[in-house]
What does this fold into?
Amino acid sequence: MRSNGVDIGSLIRLGLQIARSVEAHEDKLASIAREQTSRNEAEHMRQRAIAESKALEQRKLAEQIAKESVAISCQGCGAHLAIRKSSISFCAYCGSAIRVDAEGKATILSPEARKAVIERAQQQKDQTEGNT
Ligand SMILES: [Zn+2]
It folds into this structure.
């Protein structure tokens, strides 16, 4: 059967080909969407694992700091402070420099020693900033 010189059979075959190719294209899009979804889920799980391990890390660090800190009264103003062992801290209230040794014994630094600590910290800060 012919109509205006066009074979109806060819038209039908062409129509079927188009339908099949649209179907194949839709399948491909669906499979891309599925891949994307599983990638998103994997990424989501990865992010969660990272967040959980960071939280654990912070808890451990907080516990360690608590274990290594000692509660002392500032010898300058009497404020209650928590200072890490084997470190020098400044009282947030009066600015006294307090050294806590490895055993947790606190000693207030002399004004000269305090000044030296500040100068040393300032030098380290300048060096760090000078590198940038
Ligand atoms: Zn103080």
